[in-house]
Specification:
Strand 6 (about 160) and strand 7 (about 165-170) form a beta hairpin. It is globular, with a radius of gyration of 17 Å. It is α/β, with parallel strands linked by helices and about 200 residues long. It has helices at about 15-20, 55-60, 70-80, 110-130, 140-145, 150-155, 175-180, 185-204, and strands at about 45-50, 90, 100, 105, 135, 160, 165-170. A 5-stranded mixed sheet has the order 2-1-5-7-6, with helices on both faces. The protein has 8 helices and 7 strands, in the order αβααβββαβααββαα. The longest helix has 21 residues, at about 185-204. It has one domain: 3-Layer(aba) Sandwich (Uracil-DNA Glycosylase, subunit E). It binds uracil (URA). Uracil (URA) binds near residues 51, 52 and 69. It comes from Aminobacter carboxidus. Belongs to the uracil-DNA glycosylase (UDG) superfamily. Type 4 (UDGa) family. This is Type-4 uracil-DNA glycosylase.
């Protein structure tokens, strides 16, 4: 008898997965976005960071965390002594969702259905990379990773163990810092974010 077909033909590498994701039609977000912004980093990274979704710059450049939030992310990682090229960086949702406002494109939050549709890709990334620790940057990432609503302001700094043994560290999204108007408050929040990333570094 013929060998049983696997239930789903899953990719064997991140590059193969990225290739497949470039054609993703699991939700309607692909139609307005420039391209799929897939995760990047070594297939065997011990540490994974998960953001919300690509922003304007990420959508244009095709890489995660390269815009204003990415600048903060890079700086704070550097201060903590984490080499970005050694970690895997991705997003809960892999297409930019926005509303046009004149010439600008304003970020709009992905809904539960979009997060759910894209969770399939995140699960594949986790399966291939098998990180020792995953950092959820903000509520959308936490919701996708834990399949439950998370109050980030109350739970930040905590590590949650999933049923499958995956450790998920919770912190804020760096774009939250960019939205704080008062420079002193923004500075304090950036310092707290850096403290969280310092804890992550100490856990590795
Ligand atoms: N915000 C995110 O959540 N991800 C990115 O890649 C950029 C900004």
């Amino acid at each position: 008898p013929a060998a049983k077909q696997p239930a789903a033909a899953e990719a064997q590498s991140i590059d193969a997965l990225r290739q497949k994701a470039s054609q993703c039609r699991r939700c309607p977000l692909w139609s307005e976005a420039t391209q799929t912004v897939f995760g990047e980093g070594p297939d065997d990274a011990e540490l994974m960071f998960v953001g919300e979704q690509p922003g304007d710059q990420e959508d244009l450049q095709g890489r995660p965390f390269v815009g204003p939030a990415g600048k903060i992310f890079d700086a704070v990682l550097g201060e903590a002594g984490i080499d970005r090229t050694a970690v895997y960086v991705t997003n809960a949702v892999k297409h930019f969702k926005f509303e046009p406002r004149g010439k600008r494109r304003i970020h709009s939050k992905p809904n539960a259905g979009e997060v759910e549709a894209c969770r399939w890709w995140l699960a594949q990334e986790l399966k291939l990379v098998e990180p020792r620790l995953v950092v959820a940057l903000g509520a959308t990432a936490a919701q996708s990773l834990l399949d439950a609503p998370v109050a980030i302001t109350r739970q930040r700094g905590q590590t949650i163990m999933r049923d499958d043994g995956l450790a998920v560290f919770l912190t804020i999204h760096p774009s939250y810092i960019l939205r704080i108007r008062d420079p002193q408050d923004a500075g304090a929040e950036r310092a707290r974010f850096a403290e969280d990333i310092g804890i992550v570094r100490a856990m590795m």
